[in-house]
Amino acid sequence: MAQPRLFSLVLLTVALGAQALTPSHHLSLSDVARLQALLSQPFTDLASAYYSIVGLSKLGASVADENDACHFLKAQLDPMSVDSLFFAAEASQAISDCEIPVSNETRDILLAAVSEDSTVTQIFRAVSALSSLGLPLASQEVVGALVARIAKEDNVLAITTALQTATRLSQQADFGGILEEIEDLAARLDDLGGVYLQFEEGLEATALFVTAAYTLSDHVDTEPPLKEDQVIQLVNSVFSKKSWQSLSEAFSVACAAAALSNNRFQVPVIVSAQGPATVSHNQPILQLLVTDVLSNPLASASVVVESAQAVVSKNVILTQAPFSLRDGIFELNFMTSQPASGYYQFSVAITGDTRLVASQVELKVKVSTEVAITNMDLSVVDKDQSIGTKTSRVDYPFKAKGSFTADSHQNFAMTFQLVDVNTGVELTPHQTFVRLHNHKTGQEVVFVAEPDSKNLYKFELDIAERKSEFDSMSGTYTLHLIVGDATLENPILWNVADIVLKFLDEEAPAAIQSKTLYMPKPDIQHLFREPEKKPPTVVSNAFTALVLSPFLLLLILWFKLGANISNFSLSPSAVLFHVGHACMLGLMYVYWTHLNMFQTLKYLAIIGSLTFLAGNRMLAQKAVKRIAAEQSSRLAKYRSLR
Amino acid sequence: MSNSVISVISRFLEEYTTKTSNKLKVVDAYLFYILLTGALQFLYCLLVGTFPFNSFLAGFILCVGAFILGVCLRIQINPDNKGDFLSISQERAFADFLLAHTVLHLVVINFIG
User: Fold this and answer.
1) Chain A residue with minimal CA distance to B92?
2) Is B16 within a domain?
3) Rounded to two decimals, what is the model's pTM?
4) Is residue B2 part of a domain?
5) Which residue, among B96, B104, B106, B111, would best test binding to A if mutated, counting the most A CBs under 10 Å from its CB?
6) Domain count for chain B
7) Complex-level ipTM
8) pLDDT of B69-84, one tens digit each?
9) What is the torsional sign of CA A67, A69, A74, A79?
10) Does some domain include residue B75?
11) Which chain B residue has the Cα nearest residue A534?
12) Is B95–A592 a contact, with Cβ atoms under 8 angstroms apart?
């Protein structure tokens, strides 16, 4: 029985290839507690009582004092209002032993509310109240009214409420049209980054839709038209918010959580590691929590590791290993497979229930270990290798007995090996540093020790070559070895030895120049553009007078030549011409001081055309006069010649 | 050498004062005035510097332009050149002179800043 199912699951995994979507949000136990606390607030009115009582019942909890609650409901009930009846009836159903008194009037009011003329919310509340109070109702009529109202109120909340209403009707009613609405509504969801699926109306609308879809699907025993990925995305949307602003929002989340954890078709499963996903020799057991969205453990599930693959080497360490269930936690002893330290990609499958959604999970598990340093040999080697090396072995965590002295003719060498304490395998951690620290001057120089091909770590310090890093300061330096890695449980800081470094004296600077790298830099003063040098006002004034003086000369010359205006005819065109011309010159001045080109052209056009017309007239008259004068003078000359 | 130059100049002056009509002398006086103004502007620029350069250019170009237009007017109203300008009466020449001056002034005032 399990074999073919497992086989098909394996096929499915292979077929799907890369990672399927898994829920990134759910209600942890603390979230559920917070939700319950919010819903346990004291009641202010009937609506808040309804949200609290029914919400808590969905989470499997109950109100603090049921009797008190029942009394509150009965006291606040207004038998004339459909809403009031709805809240009281629904809440009383959630409390054991609480009956709301029903009268014929009540029934009539509720039945009257079921019609095409009421809003969907009204119909929903009336139908729910009727069914909670045990009163008969005509399901087909309700369906008809709902369909008519959906056509008129085409918004998300109305259709969701209609779906909710349908869950209260008898199973024999014709739900065809209403069931299709689930798929239509699902199409209206907004996909945010492929991770979230929600209505733009917000969290409450999305949560109510989820509740309605699953409740109705259960009621009519038809699988909801939601794909696995859509379900996961809806889970992410509904449970991403961990503090709820209103009681109705908290109520909708509680209803959605209840619907998702307990319906007949699709139950999203949440898989997470208990604590950090790390195993080591001290803690060889990998613990997984497999729960539904309300963090209730799924005891009936069976958890299997399909494959465990090392991330770096791609070796598959484990296939088809089952987890064992202990106290609601699934455990696997990974160290029995003797994995090398590092990261492993686990592909985990949850089976045992056909309803499970997101039952294929990828998990990254770290195997950590402890490192030991072996064969630590320190030596001072002469560069020309003429004098034999003196190697001292030092054991961790002790310090070398004497200090080592090295000067510019020598190299200081260090070799060691890093092995895994448990398996004896050689390790190459990320961080292997050699730190030299001068206590007197506070200098610190860090080098990296690198492994060769046989994983033997070597560090060589060429004194002469590295003198710049030490600023040529001779003195005693303590040598520390630093070993660290994400997969090491015991990072090492080991004071191995003291070294006395001797640099050539003439290279040593007098004092340490403190690094002025982080001191404030000198201020840059902004140089504004200097205005150009102007000549003194006296000079420019003098020259202005000089430049204007030729005009006087002109007037004098004209006077001497006998130019006059005795021929000035006072005809209107002449006057107008001269006035216009003067205006044009004045316009030039005004242009210089006030106007821009466009305004000037405008005025110039007006004045200019007037001046032109007047001038034309005037000059024509003058021309006539001149020609007449010329003709008469010619005539006179001719006559005198005769 | 200088003798001939002086004699040429004195002859020229004599001919000028007797032969040229008054009208032309008036225009010549105007031209001389423009010339002086332009020269003085240039002298200022040489002595004191070209700041502000656009103003200097505007003033100088105005003088040059006015001089040229004045010369054109003189040529066109000179009765000796009547054969070359049959279609252009004296009044027409003057009107052209005024129009050209308007445009020149517009441009110069724009540039003077």
Assistant:
1) A619
2) no
3) 0.60
4) no
5) B106
6) 1
7) 0.85
8) 999 999 888 888 777 8
9) negative
10) yes
11) B51
12) no
